[in-house]
Records
---
Amino acid sequence: MPWTERQQALLQAMGLRVWAEPDREPAAEAGSVLPPASEPAPPAAPVPAAPPARARPVSSPPARAAAPAVASALAGLDWPALRSAVAGCQACSLCSSRTQTVFGVGHPQAHWMVVGEAPGENEDLQGEPFVGAAGQLLDRMLAALQLSRAADGPPERSVYIANTLKCRPPRNRNPSAEELAQCEPFLVRQIELLQPRIILAMGRFAVQTLLRSDEPIGRLRGRVHRYQGVPLVVTYHPAYLLRSLPEKAKAWDDLCLAAETVEGSAAV
Ligand code: SF4
C-alpha cells in the first residue's frame, strides 16, 4: 500500500528517509519502503532532525504529543524496514554522538520481551542491547527459566530484548523526556510486531515509557500490569542489581511472577 503524504511527512519529521514507494520496489514486502535488513544500512540521510519542542504548542507535553502520530506513520513497517528506519534515524540529537543504533535482539516471535532503558558504552560499540556484565547477569537469570535471547530457538523459550532508547546518551546520562518521546514509536512498533505474551520492563525509563508512571519501581513491582492488553511485570535493571545485591531476590521473584503469568495465560 503506498504511503500517504501524511505518513511520509511524519517519517521525514522524525528524520527518517523514505527510499522508495512499495509499488515501485517489487522485492520489498508490502508496506516496506526501506531496504531489507540483509543489506547494509544506508548512510544517514542528510535530512533535518525532528521539529524542536518549541514548534509544538506549549500546552502539549512532548512525551504525550509525539508518539501517537509517529507510531501511526510507522504502522506499515515490517521488521527489516523498522530496523532500517532506526538505523537511519536522526529524530533527536543522540544521532550525532552514537557509534551505531541498538535496535534489538532475539526471536521475532518470542513469547517474552525484555524492555530496558538506553544503550551503554558496550551496547553502543556492539550494536546489541544488554551486553557486558549487566547483560551477562540478565542472560543467567533468563537461563534459569530455560529462556534465551537466541533468535533460532522455540518462540515459547525465546526472549526478544530491546531498549526504550535506540541510541546511547553521551556519558550514559539520563535520557531527556524529548528523546524518550521521539524514540518511543520504534518500541511501540516492535511490540506490535512481536506480540509478546509477557513484557518485562527493566528500569525507571522503561517503566515510565510503558506505564506512564513516575512511581518508584519498588512500588510497581510484585503485580501484573497491562500494556496494550499485554501482561507487564516491572523489575529492577540488571545494572542496578550488580550494585545492589539484596535486590536480586526480588528480581528473581519478578521473573517467577512473569513465568507464572505466561503459563497461566497459556493454560486458559
Ligand atoms: S534515540 Fe531514537 S529518536 Fe533519537 S536518533 Fe536514536 S533512534 Fe532516533
---
Amino acid sequence: MKITTIGYWGAYPAANEATSGYLLQSEGENILIDCGSGVLSNMQNYIELVALDAVILSHYHADHMADIYTLQYAMRILMDLKKRKKPLHIYGHAEDKEFEKLHYYDYTIANAIDERKPLKLGELTIFFNRNVHSDTCFSMRIEKKNKKIVYTADTGWDDTLIKFADKADLLICESSLYNENVGTITGHLSAGEAGKIAAMADVKQLVLSHLPHFGEHDDLLKQARENFDGKIEMAKTGMNWRL
Ligand SMILES: [Zn+2]
Ligand SMILES: [Zn+2]
C-alpha cells in the first residue's frame, strides 16, 4: 500500500496547500482519508476524481472535511456526464447530525463507522480508536497483511493510543502544539507527546502532521526527537510512503 500526503496543515491551509488529507492506494483501490480545505484541488495532482473509491472521515471539523461538499458536486457532475459510473462511499461516525449530510442523492453514500467493528475495504482492514477531542473523533489503523499505518487525526493525550499504535510501520501523528503550549489548548498533541507515543508504541517511523501556523516547525522535530530515537519526518505535500 502507498499513502500520500495531500494536506497537512491544522485549522486552515497555507497558500496552494491543504489541511488534513491522505490518499491511500492499494491494489487499484483509491481511498481518501480526511478531506480538509484544499484537498479536493490538490488531490487531482495525484489521481483523477473518477478513480476515487471511498473517503473515510475522522471527524467533522472543517479542517478535516471542508471539501466534502464540493467533492459531492464533483461526483454529481462526473456521474451526470457518464464519466463516472458508481457513487462515492463516504465513511464517518454517525454520532453527529453532520453524518446525514454525507449522503447526497445517489452520488455519494454515507456509511457509519463502528469502533467495535473494523472496516474492510478490499485487502485493507481499518480499525478505529476513540480520541480525546472537543467533538467525537477517531484515530485509524490501516492494516494490510503484516503492515500497519496509524493516523491519529486530532487528539489530546490518551493512553489507549499506545496500544492502538503498537509496532506500527508508520505513525502519522498530529503535532499541533509545541511542548510549551501543553495545557493551554486541549484536545491536541504536542510534538513531545507525539515522540512519546512513537517511543512507547515502538513504531518504526513517525511523521508529524496537522502542523501549526506559528513557531518554527524545526522545533517540533527537535521536541519529538527528545523522546523518540527512530526515524521522524515532517509531513509535506506530496510526501508518500510505500509499505
Ligand atoms: Zn478537530
Ligand atoms: Zn484538525
---
Amino acid sequence: MEKALWNGKIVNKDEIKISIDDRAFHFGDGVYEVIRVYEGELYLAEAHMKRLYQSAEKVGIRIEVNPDTFLEQLVQLKEEANLIDGTIYVQVSRGVSPRNHPFPTPAVAAEIVGFTKGAKRPFEQMKAGVKATVIEDTRWLHCDIKSISLLGNVLAKQKAVEAGCFESIQHRDGVVTEGSSTNAFIVKNNTVYTHPADHLILNGITRQRLIELGRNHGIDIQEVAFSTEDLLNADEVFVAGTTVEIMPVIQVDDKKYGDNPGPITQTLQRLLHEDIEKVAGVRN
Ligand SMILES: Cc1ncc(COP(=O)(O)O)c(C=O)c1O
C-alpha cells in the first residue's frame, strides 16, 4: 500500500480522509513544494522547506510544526514509501472550515499532506533538447508564492501540449517571465539572462542553484529581464526546474537555434549534474 504523510503521521494513502470543507478544494487556498529525491537522497531539501514556510507566511498560513521536524517527516515518508528516484509532493492548506472567503476565525489548523512519486531523470530530453511556445502570461501578480492555485499555470502548460511543445514560455507586455512550471533563461554573447526574482516569477530552487554554480564557475549570469525579441535572437535557450533539471530549448515556435544544446547550457548541465552527484551520491 502506498504511503503518505497526513498531519504529521505516515499512513496508508487510502486512510487519508480529506474533508470537502478543506479550503484547498474551495479556494486553492494553500501552498506546496516538490522536492527531488535521487538515489534515496533529498536534493536541496532545506531550500525547499525555507520556500515552503516563506510561501505560507506570505499568505498568512501558520505551519505549526517546525521546519526540522517537518523535514524529518518527509524523510520518513520517503523511507516508508521506498522512494529511490522521484519526487516528494507536500501541500499545506489553510485548513478545514465551512466555505467562506475570509480566513476562518478563530484560525483552524493547517492541513498537511505529502506523497511520493517515482520518476526517472529525463536524460534523453536533456541531451536532445525540447520545443517551447511563447504565450501571454495571464497569471496573477503573486507568482513568487508557490500557491496550489495553479489554474493559470495549468492553462499555460496545456497550450504547450496543444502546440506540440514541452513548455510554454510566458511574457507580460513582451517581457519574458518564466515557463508554466519552469524558469526561463537565454544566453547571448556568453552572458546568461533570467528574470529577476520578484513577484512575477517563482524563484526556483534549481534557478538559485544553477546561478550559484554557474557564477562560481565564472559564467556571467545576469538576473535581468529579457524580451520576447531577445528570446528569438538568443544564442541558447533553456528552462530549469526540480523535475526537468536544466532542459535545453532547441526551438521556440518557428525559430530554431543553431548549435544545440549550446555550450553554456551544456556546461551548466554538467555543473548541476556534478552537484547532484555530490549531494546525493548519484552517478550521472
Ligand atoms: C511557475 C514555476 N516556475 C518555476 C519553477 C521551478 O522551480 P523549482 O526549481 O523550485 O522546481 C516551478 C516549479 O514547479 C514553477 O511551478
---
Amino acid sequence: MSSLLETKIAARQHALREQGLLRQRKVLSVDHALNTNASTSSPRFVFEGRAYVNFSSNDYLGLSRVPPLAEALHLGAQTYGVGSGASPLVTGYSDAHLALERELCALTGHEAALLFCSGFSANTALMKTLFDQHDIVVADKLVHASIIDGLQDSGAQLKRFLHNSLESAERLLARHQTSALITESVFSMDGDCAPIFELSALCRQHHAWLIVDDAHGFAVLDGYKKAEPAKLIDVQVVTFGKALGCQGAAVLGSQALIDFLVSNAREYIYSTALSPANAALALAATQYSTEHPELQQQLLENIKLFKRLCREANVPLLGSDTAIQPLIIGDARQTLQVAEELRAAGIWVGAIRPPTVPVGSARLRITLTAAHAAEDIATCVAQLAQVLSRVGVPLVTERQAADDHR
Ligand SMILES: Cc1ncc(COP(=O)(O)O)c(C=O)c1O
C-alpha cells in the first residue's frame, strides 16, 4: 500500500500532466565547437546531441562566458578558497564581500548593501524581516514569486495594484496607511518597465518606502540610473545571475536598514555566506559591465533588430523595449507545441505557463542578449513566423494584451 505522501504526490503530478503544466528539467551541455569564441557566435548549448541557439537566457550582456570574468573567478578561488566556510556573522564575511558591497553602493548611491546567495533569498529575507502584521504593503500585481512568498511569511497585509497603473497605486496609497510600495524595474515575464519616477513621487507624498526588485534592470536599464537610484528608491534589490552573468544578489538601502537586516534576517544569519570567489566575480562583472558600454549598445541593437523583423513578419509582440520579448499564446499546451516546433528548428525559447503567469496568458518568453548574432535573430524570427502560422495559433495582438492587463 502506498503512503499518504506517495498518493498525494502521484495525484498532484497526474493533475499537472493533464493540464500540460508538469515541469521537467532538461540536461544541457556545452557546445564545445561553437562556444570557443563567445564574441562572434550566439549563445548555444547541446541537448540530446543537438545544438540550439539559446533565446531563453537572462545573461543579457553575454558576460557568463567572458574570459576575464572566468579569470576573476579563478583568482578569487585561489585567493579565498572555493567556499566561504561559514555564515556571515561567524567567519563567512571577508574583504571580498565588503569590496563588492562598496562598489554596488558607489554605483547606486545607497549607503549600505547586504549580499545573499540568490535574488530569491534576498527578496524573501527582506520582506519577512522588514514587515509584520502591523504593516500594509502595496505591490504591483505582477511582482515576483519571491516577494509574494516573503510577504506572506511576514504576516503583512498585502494590497495589489493593477500592473503599472499609477491610478490604481495611488488609490491604494490614499486609502491605506502604507509602509511600502513594491515593484520591479523590468518585469520578468512581460519585459515592460515600471514608472519609477512617478511611483517614487507618489511614495514620497504618502510617506511610504519604494522598494524595487531590479533583477532584470541592473546593469542593463539606463533610464532611472542616470538620476541615481538611491534618490528615487529606498530599497533596491539587485541580482548577479541576470545581466552580470554570475550568481548571488544584494539588498541596497540605508545603513539603518542593512544593520537591521544583519541582526534579524534569518536567511542571512543562518546560511553559509556567498562564497568570496563569487563575490570577487560579481565585483569584476559589475566593473566589466560599466567599462564596456558597447555591450549594452549591442543588446539594444539586437532588441531593435528583433522587433523590426517581427513587425515585418507580422509576429505580434507585447510591446516591450527590453531584452525580454513575450509573445502571448494563451493556451499552455499550444505554447508548449510552438516551443517544441521552434526547437525542431534549432531555436530554444522559454515556454512560460501558469502559475508563473496568469491562467490564459501562457507565452513564449524570448530573451535577447548582446551575444546574439544578427543572422541567428533573423532565423529565430523567420522560424517563429512559420511555426505560428503552421500551428494556427490565435495570436493576441498588442492591444488585446494591454487590455488584459487593465
Ligand atoms: C524579478 C525577479 N526577482 C528575483 C529573482 C530571483 O533571483 P535569483 O535568480 O538570483 O534567485 C528573479 C529570478 O528569477 C526575478 O525574475
